Amino acid sequence: MSILKPGLTLIHEHTTIDLSRIKDDEDTNLNCFEETIAEFKELYDFGVRNIIDVTAAGMGRNIQYVKEVAQQSEINIVNATGFYKEPFLPDFVYDFTIEQLAEYMVNEITVGIENTDIKAGVIGEIGTSKDVFEETEKKVFEAAVLAHKQTDAIISTHTSLGTMALEQAQFFIERNVDPKKVIIGHQDLCEDLDQIKKLIDLGFNVAFDTIGKNNYFPDTERVKFLVDLQAEGKLESISLSLDITRKTNMKYLGGIGYTYLFTDFIPMLKEAGITDESLDLMLNKNAQRIFGGQ
Q1: Share above pLDDT 70 across residues of the chain, in percent, rounded to a whole number
Q2: Please, how many CA atoms are within 13 Å of residue 232, restricted to the half-sphere of its CB?
Q3: In the chain, what are the domains?
Q4: What is the Cα–Cα distance from 138 to 129, expressed in whole angstroms?
Q5: Could you tell me the pTM of the whole model?
Q6: Which of 107, 181, 229, 233 sits most deeply, having the most CB atoms within 10 A of its CB?
Q7: How far apart, in whole angstroms, are the C-alpha atoms of residue 44 and residue 153?
Q8: Ordered DSSP codes for 188-209
Q9: In a 10 Å sphere around its CB, with 0-12 CB exposed, 13-18 middle and 19+ buried, how is residue 71 labelled?
Protein backbone atom coordinates (compact mmCIF):
# COMPACT_ATOMS: atom_id res chain seq x y z
CA MET A 1 0.00 0.00 0.00
CA SER A 2 1.41 3.37 -1.01
CA ILE A 3 1.81 6.24 1.44
CA LEU A 4 1.20 8.52 -1.53
CA LYS A 5 -2.04 9.85 -2.95
CA PRO A 6 -2.72 9.34 -6.66
CA GLY A 7 -1.15 12.23 -8.54
CA LEU A 8 2.19 13.89 -9.12
CA THR A 9 4.99 13.77 -6.53
CA LEU A 10 7.92 16.09 -5.87
CA ILE A 11 10.55 13.67 -4.58
CA HIS A 12 12.82 16.03 -2.59
CA GLU A 13 11.55 19.25 -1.03
CA HIS A 14 11.45 21.26 2.19
CA THR A 15 8.25 22.87 3.43
CA THR A 16 10.31 24.72 6.00
CA ILE A 17 14.00 24.44 6.79
CA ASP A 18 16.47 26.41 8.88
CA LEU A 19 20.19 26.08 8.19
CA SER A 20 20.92 29.63 9.36
CA ARG A 21 22.51 28.54 12.65
CA ILE A 22 25.45 27.14 10.70
CA LYS A 23 25.34 29.23 7.54
CA ASP A 24 24.79 32.50 9.43
CA ASP A 25 22.43 33.62 6.69
CA GLU A 26 18.78 34.40 7.44
CA ASP A 27 17.92 33.60 3.83
CA THR A 28 18.48 29.92 4.70
CA ASN A 29 15.67 30.07 7.28
CA LEU A 30 12.72 29.15 5.06
CA ASN A 31 9.90 30.21 7.38
CA CYS A 32 7.57 32.08 5.00
CA PHE A 33 4.40 30.26 6.04
CA GLU A 34 1.67 32.06 4.08
CA GLU A 35 3.78 32.31 0.95
CA THR A 36 4.53 28.59 1.09
CA ILE A 37 0.84 27.74 1.37
CA ALA A 38 0.10 29.96 -1.63
CA GLU A 39 2.77 28.24 -3.73
CA PHE A 40 1.67 24.76 -2.63
CA LYS A 41 -1.88 25.59 -3.71
CA GLU A 42 -0.46 26.46 -7.13
CA LEU A 43 1.35 23.10 -7.16
CA TYR A 44 -1.99 21.44 -6.41
CA ASP A 45 -3.45 23.12 -9.49
CA PHE A 46 -0.63 21.57 -11.55
CA GLY A 47 -1.60 18.12 -10.27
CA VAL A 48 0.89 17.72 -7.42
CA ARG A 49 -0.65 15.62 -4.65
CA ASN A 50 2.49 14.52 -2.76
CA ILE A 51 5.65 16.16 -1.50
CA ILE A 52 8.45 14.12 0.05
CA ASP A 53 9.76 16.52 2.69
CA VAL A 54 13.29 15.41 3.53
CA THR A 55 13.90 17.87 6.37
CA ALA A 56 15.67 15.79 8.99
CA ALA A 57 16.36 16.50 12.66
CA GLY A 58 18.85 19.35 12.98
CA MET A 59 17.60 21.10 9.83
CA GLY A 60 14.88 23.13 11.50
CA ARG A 61 12.27 20.42 11.11
CA ASN A 62 8.87 21.71 12.31
CA ILE A 63 6.20 19.03 12.20
CA GLN A 64 3.27 21.22 13.24
CA TYR A 65 4.20 23.84 10.62
CA VAL A 66 4.26 21.14 7.93
CA LYS A 67 0.97 19.68 9.15
CA GLU A 68 -0.74 23.07 8.84
CA VAL A 69 0.67 23.67 5.34
CA ALA A 70 -0.51 20.22 4.28
CA GLN A 71 -4.00 20.85 5.62
CA GLN A 72 -4.36 24.24 3.97
CA SER A 73 -2.87 23.23 0.62
CA GLU A 74 -4.47 19.75 0.56
CA ILE A 75 -1.13 18.25 -0.49
CA ASN A 76 0.00 15.03 1.19
CA ILE A 77 3.38 15.87 2.74
CA VAL A 78 5.51 12.88 3.75
CA ASN A 79 7.76 13.73 6.70
CA ALA A 80 11.28 12.43 7.23
CA THR A 81 13.38 10.99 10.01
CA GLY A 82 17.15 10.90 10.11
CA PHE A 83 20.10 13.28 10.22
CA TYR A 84 21.63 15.40 7.47
CA LYS A 85 25.42 15.85 7.18
CA GLU A 86 28.37 17.63 8.73
CA PRO A 87 28.19 20.29 10.16
CA PHE A 88 24.37 20.27 10.48
CA LEU A 89 24.01 17.26 12.79
CA PRO A 90 22.28 17.54 16.19
CA ASP A 91 24.71 17.31 19.09
CA PHE A 92 23.30 13.99 20.28
CA VAL A 93 24.31 12.29 17.03
CA TYR A 94 27.93 12.42 18.22
CA ASP A 95 27.05 10.88 21.59
CA PHE A 96 24.53 8.22 20.57
CA THR A 97 25.60 4.79 19.40
CA ILE A 98 24.64 3.59 15.94
CA GLU A 99 21.98 1.42 17.55
CA GLN A 100 20.55 4.35 19.53
CA LEU A 101 20.35 6.49 16.37
CA ALA A 102 18.59 3.65 14.59
CA GLU A 103 16.13 3.30 17.47
CA TYR A 104 15.43 7.05 17.27
CA MET A 105 14.54 6.72 13.58
CA VAL A 106 12.50 3.56 14.03
CA ASN A 107 10.49 5.27 16.77
CA GLU A 108 9.72 8.23 14.50
CA ILE A 109 8.59 5.84 11.76
CA THR A 110 6.48 3.52 13.90
CA VAL A 111 5.26 5.71 16.79
CA GLY A 112 5.55 9.37 15.81
CA ILE A 113 7.83 12.37 15.47
CA GLU A 114 8.58 14.56 18.49
CA ASN A 115 5.77 13.27 20.72
CA THR A 116 3.15 13.54 17.96
CA ASP A 117 1.21 10.84 16.15
CA ILE A 118 2.66 12.04 12.83
CA LYS A 119 4.86 9.23 11.56
CA ALA A 120 7.89 9.59 9.32
CA GLY A 121 7.50 7.99 5.91
CA VAL A 122 11.07 8.28 4.67
CA ILE A 123 14.61 8.19 6.08
CA GLY A 124 16.47 11.25 4.86
CA GLU A 125 17.95 13.34 3.75
CA ILE A 126 21.10 11.65 5.01
CA GLY A 127 24.18 13.10 3.40
CA THR A 128 27.84 13.06 2.57
CA SER A 129 30.14 16.07 2.35
CA LYS A 130 31.75 17.33 -0.85
CA ASP A 131 34.29 14.73 -2.02
CA VAL A 132 34.43 13.04 1.39
CA PHE A 133 32.40 10.60 3.47
CA GLU A 134 32.97 11.88 7.02
CA GLU A 135 33.10 9.34 9.86
CA THR A 136 30.04 10.79 11.60
CA GLU A 137 28.17 10.67 8.29
CA LYS A 138 29.08 6.98 7.99
CA LYS A 139 27.69 6.51 11.49
CA VAL A 140 24.39 8.07 10.38
CA PHE A 141 24.31 5.88 7.27
CA GLU A 142 24.93 2.75 9.38
CA ALA A 143 22.04 3.74 11.63
CA ALA A 144 19.83 4.47 8.63
CA VAL A 145 20.52 1.00 7.24
CA LEU A 146 19.53 -0.59 10.56
CA ALA A 147 16.35 1.50 10.72
CA HIS A 148 15.53 0.68 7.09
CA LYS A 149 15.93 -3.06 7.72
CA GLN A 150 13.56 -2.86 10.68
CA THR A 151 10.90 -0.75 8.95
CA ASP A 152 11.45 -1.08 5.16
CA ALA A 153 11.31 2.74 4.96
CA ILE A 154 12.80 4.29 1.83
CA ILE A 155 16.19 5.99 2.24
CA SER A 156 16.75 9.37 0.52
CA THR A 157 20.26 10.76 0.35
CA HIS A 158 22.05 14.05 -0.12
CA THR A 159 25.23 14.23 -2.18
CA SER A 160 27.11 17.52 -1.94
CA LEU A 161 27.27 18.84 -5.51
CA GLY A 162 26.61 15.30 -6.68
CA THR A 163 29.85 13.88 -5.25
CA MET A 164 30.29 10.59 -3.36
CA ALA A 165 27.21 9.05 -4.99
CA LEU A 166 29.01 5.88 -6.10
CA GLU A 167 30.54 5.59 -2.63
CA GLN A 168 27.06 5.83 -1.12
CA ALA A 169 25.84 3.19 -3.55
CA GLN A 170 28.69 0.84 -2.61
CA PHE A 171 27.96 1.42 1.08
CA PHE A 172 24.37 0.25 0.64
CA ILE A 173 25.28 -2.69 -1.60
CA GLU A 174 27.85 -3.97 0.91
CA ARG A 175 25.13 -3.93 3.59
CA ASN A 176 22.60 -5.77 1.43
CA VAL A 177 20.19 -2.87 1.04
CA ASP A 178 17.97 -3.21 -2.03
CA PRO A 179 18.97 -0.33 -4.35
CA LYS A 180 15.30 0.10 -5.33
CA LYS A 181 14.70 1.21 -1.73
CA VAL A 182 17.22 4.06 -2.02
CA ILE A 183 17.00 7.44 -3.75
CA ILE A 184 20.42 8.96 -4.47
CA GLY A 185 19.93 12.72 -4.45
CA HIS A 186 21.25 15.76 -6.32
CA GLN A 187 22.60 13.84 -9.29
CA ASP A 188 21.64 16.67 -11.62
CA LEU A 189 24.54 18.54 -9.99
CA CYS A 190 27.21 15.91 -10.66
CA GLU A 191 27.95 17.00 -14.26
CA ASP A 192 28.74 13.34 -14.99
CA LEU A 193 26.19 11.41 -17.03
CA ASP A 194 28.27 8.23 -16.80
CA GLN A 195 28.00 8.35 -12.99
CA ILE A 196 24.23 8.67 -13.26
CA LYS A 197 24.04 5.71 -15.64
CA LYS A 198 26.20 3.59 -13.30
CA LEU A 199 23.81 4.30 -10.42
CA ILE A 200 20.83 3.36 -12.59
CA ASP A 201 22.53 0.18 -13.80
CA LEU A 202 23.18 -0.77 -10.17
CA GLY A 203 19.42 -0.45 -9.56
CA PHE A 204 19.26 2.79 -7.57
CA ASN A 205 16.64 5.50 -7.90
CA VAL A 206 18.22 8.78 -8.97
CA ALA A 207 16.87 12.25 -8.21
CA PHE A 208 17.21 15.22 -10.51
CA ASP A 209 16.06 17.35 -7.61
CA THR A 210 17.71 20.75 -7.96
CA ILE A 211 15.83 21.87 -11.06
CA GLY A 212 16.20 25.62 -11.58
CA LYS A 213 19.45 25.98 -9.64
CA ASN A 214 21.24 27.28 -12.70
CA ASN A 215 23.97 28.88 -10.61
CA TYR A 216 25.21 25.34 -9.86
CA PHE A 217 24.46 23.59 -13.17
CA PRO A 218 22.39 24.94 -16.09
CA ASP A 219 18.96 23.49 -16.83
CA THR A 220 19.95 23.30 -20.48
CA GLU A 221 22.46 20.60 -19.49
CA ARG A 222 19.92 18.84 -17.27
CA VAL A 223 17.64 18.67 -20.31
CA LYS A 224 20.43 17.11 -22.42
CA PHE A 225 21.06 14.50 -19.73
CA LEU A 226 17.38 13.57 -19.58
CA VAL A 227 17.07 13.35 -23.36
CA ASP A 228 20.04 10.96 -23.39
CA LEU A 229 18.55 8.89 -20.57
CA GLN A 230 15.21 8.74 -22.39
CA ALA A 231 16.96 7.44 -25.51
CA GLU A 232 18.53 4.65 -23.44
CA GLY A 233 15.29 3.78 -21.66
CA LYS A 234 16.63 4.75 -18.25
CA LEU A 235 13.99 7.24 -17.07
CA GLU A 236 12.24 4.57 -14.99
CA SER A 237 14.84 5.36 -12.34
CA ILE A 238 14.59 9.18 -12.43
CA SER A 239 12.44 11.51 -10.34
CA LEU A 240 12.26 15.31 -10.39
CA SER A 241 12.15 18.06 -7.77
CA LEU A 242 13.55 21.53 -6.98
CA ASP A 243 14.91 21.40 -3.42
CA ILE A 244 13.71 24.88 -2.46
CA THR A 245 15.67 25.91 0.66
CA ARG A 246 15.90 29.71 0.72
CA LYS A 247 13.48 32.59 1.03
CA THR A 248 14.98 34.04 -2.15
CA ASN A 249 14.02 30.84 -3.98
CA MET A 250 10.38 31.82 -3.37
CA LYS A 251 8.27 33.81 -5.82
CA TYR A 252 7.46 36.61 -3.40
CA LEU A 253 11.13 37.58 -3.34
CA GLY A 254 11.64 37.13 -7.07
CA GLY A 255 12.84 33.52 -7.00
CA ILE A 256 11.82 30.66 -9.27
CA GLY A 257 9.27 29.25 -6.84
CA TYR A 258 8.04 25.67 -6.53
CA THR A 259 6.05 25.84 -9.79
CA TYR A 260 9.12 26.60 -11.95
CA LEU A 261 9.33 22.90 -12.72
CA PHE A 262 5.95 23.10 -14.48
CA THR A 263 6.02 26.62 -15.91
CA ASP A 264 9.59 26.62 -17.23
CA PHE A 265 11.42 23.31 -17.06
CA ILE A 266 8.80 20.95 -18.45
CA PRO A 267 8.28 23.15 -21.54
CA MET A 268 12.06 22.95 -22.07
CA LEU A 269 11.89 19.17 -21.80
CA LYS A 270 9.01 18.89 -24.24
CA GLU A 271 10.73 21.13 -26.76
CA ALA A 272 13.79 18.86 -26.55
CA GLY A 273 11.72 15.74 -27.21
CA ILE A 274 10.87 14.42 -23.76
CA THR A 275 7.54 12.63 -24.11
CA ASP A 276 4.42 12.82 -21.95
CA GLU A 277 5.03 9.17 -21.08
CA SER A 278 8.50 10.05 -19.77
CA LEU A 279 7.13 12.96 -17.75
CA ASP A 280 4.54 10.64 -16.22
CA LEU A 281 7.35 8.30 -15.19
CA MET A 282 9.47 11.00 -13.58
CA LEU A 283 6.67 12.84 -11.78
CA ASN A 284 4.15 10.10 -11.07
CA LYS A 285 4.83 6.42 -11.67
CA ASN A 286 8.39 6.24 -10.36
CA ALA A 287 7.48 7.80 -7.00
CA GLN A 288 4.40 5.59 -6.70
CA ARG A 289 6.59 2.52 -7.31
CA ILE A 290 9.26 3.62 -4.86
CA PHE A 291 6.79 4.30 -2.05
CA GLY A 292 4.75 1.16 -2.48
CA GLY A 293 2.18 1.94 -5.14
CA GLN A 294 1.74 0.36 -8.55
Answers
A1: 99
A2: 16
A3: 8-290 (3.20.20.140)
A4: 11
A5: 0.97
A6: 229
A7: 26
A8: GGS--HHHHHHHHHHT-EEEE-
A9: exposed
